[in-house]
Specification:
Aspartate Aminotransferase, domain 1, binds pyridoxal-5'-phosphate, Aspartate Aminotransferase, domain 2
Length: about 425
């Protein structure tokens, strides 16, 4: 429906062929003065088709199994039309190293404790709207006040809530590319203008570029990801301090992978600075399936987010899962040590091959084959039942692939396959 015309149903026909149920609804558009014929034939995404003839007095409900491949009748917002969405294709393979999850499940004792608490949930009641115990547990982990913690459904929802609160129409959001695509994506979805700063060819961020973007765009929100995804590079502490000193608005440090790195911006968070740090349970805490993330920030910031987020957005299961996970910090730290050791092992092994390796502080490694096209290496790995992330077609990442650190056994399979693929590619 556009601004000037309402869409009405003027006829309907139902058919069933070989078990496939379709409904054709004749639609037309009513002009400003009530006349029919206001627009061209288009289609509801639910499968209702426009035929532009006949007449009916009432709308027919959409059939359950009808699927349309035609153009939707209702266009999306003009500024969203060019959006592609975030894709992370999956394939059936033996070794899956493409989505930066933990290769290991949470400890068995966590599963038992979680199951026991789940059996005591009062399912007919809404959960604790403020996730009080979860916030307290996260606050204790980081040595901050519970009023400095906001949790949501994955750090993606945390990022979305931040941008709903501080981004939006008339506001500018800055990123330094290449980086995590969801920062710019969510910023655009909520109607902000996005300004993309550029990293150098080695993916580091120069002081000059940082200052240029902040001085020319004066962003309301600026994102920095440390360690960065997809490069794995840790942002030096001095660069983050510099960013904080010149940023006119909110500085968001996305630390989804910070436990694998050697420093965190968490120590810089306090009441007087517009700095916030996001974290997730999806990586270190082996709980990608739970969808839980959080942000640590000043109390005035957390209060603002609490006002904007939907009521009862965090379900009871998530609150329990997260709170119990934090009791297993020792086990999680053991996992982090293993992954960091494996990351160093695969990085060193890849450096002996015809491959450029970006130094990583995360649980993945970005690499670029030097003697073969990135896409061909990716396909050859898939042919050997190993899936890594193909970034070779992404802007600024020509020929690059990204491998998530797996178990030692998975990493061995990956390294052997990669060696076999690229060893024939070295120019003698
Ligand atoms: C940098 C970064 N931030 C945030 C996220 C989202 O994490 P979550 O699973 O908590 O939504 C990811 C996921 O890959 C990420 O790479």
């Amino acid at each position: 429906m556009d601004r000037h015309h309402d869409v009405v149903a003027v006829g309907a026909e139902e058919r069933c062929h070989e078990g496939r149920h379709t409904l054709t609804v004749t639609l037309d558009r009513v002009g400003d003065h009530g006349e029919l014929g206001g627009g061209a034939g288009r289609v509801f995404a639910s499968g209702i088709r426009h035929a532009r003839q006949g007449r009916a007095d009432e709308l027919v409900p959409s059939p359950r199994h009808a699927v349309s491949t035609l153009t939707p009748v209702i266009p999306v917002r003009d500024d969203l039309r060019a959006l592609e969405g975030y894709h992370s294709p999956q394939l059936e393979v033996k070794v899956r190293l493409n989505t930066n999850e933990s290769p290991l499940p949470p400890p068995a004792a966590w599963r038992d404790a979680f199951a026991a608490e789940m059996s005591r949930v009062e399912w007919h009641r809404y959960p604790d709207r403020h996730a009080t115990e979860l916030r307290e547990a996260i606050a204790a982990l980081h040595g901050v006040a519970p009023e400095m913690v906001f949790a949501a459904n994955g750090s993606n929802e945390v990022l979305q809530t931040i941008l709903l609160t501080y981004g939006g129409p008339g506001r500018t959001v800055a990123t330094f590319e290449p980086t995590y695509q969801m920062h710019a994506q969510i910023a655009r979805v909520v109607g902000s203008q996005v300004v993309e700063g550029e990293r150098d060819a080695d993916f580091t961020l120069s002081s000059g570029e940082l200052r240029r973007v902040l001085e020319t765009a004066a962003p309301h929100v600026v994102f920095i990801t440390s360690p960065n995804n997809p490069t794995g590079l840790v942002e030096p502490a001095d660069r983050v301090r510099e960013l904080l000193s010149v940023a006119p608005g909110l500085v968001v440090v996305d630390e989804a992978y910070a436990q694998f790195a050697d420093w965190s911006a968490l120590d810089l968070v306090d009441e007087s600075r517009p700095l916030v740090v996001t974290r997730t349970f999806s990586k270190t805490w082996s709980m990608a399936a739970v969808r839980l993330g959080y942000v640590i920030g000043p109390t005035w910031f957390v209060r603002a987010l609490d006002t904007v987020v939907l009521p009862y957005h965090l379900d009871a299961a998530k609150q329990i899962a997260g709170r119990l996970a934090l009791r297993f910090a020792d086990e999680m730290n053991d996992r982090v040590r293993l992954i960091v050791a494996e990351r160093e092992r695969i990085s060193a092994a890849m450096r002996t091959m015809a491959i450029d390796v970006t130094p990583s502080g995360a649980n993945f490694v970005l690499f670029r084959p030097t003697g073969m096209a990135g896409r061909d290496v990716w396909q050859a790995l898939v042919d050997r039942s190993v899936l890594v992330r193909d970034c070779s077609g992404w802007p600024r990442l020509a020929e690059c692939l990204r491998v998530t650190v797996g178990t030692p056994e998975e990493n061995d399979v990956f390294l052997a396959a990669l060696d076999e693929i690229v060893s024939g590619s070295v120019v003698q």
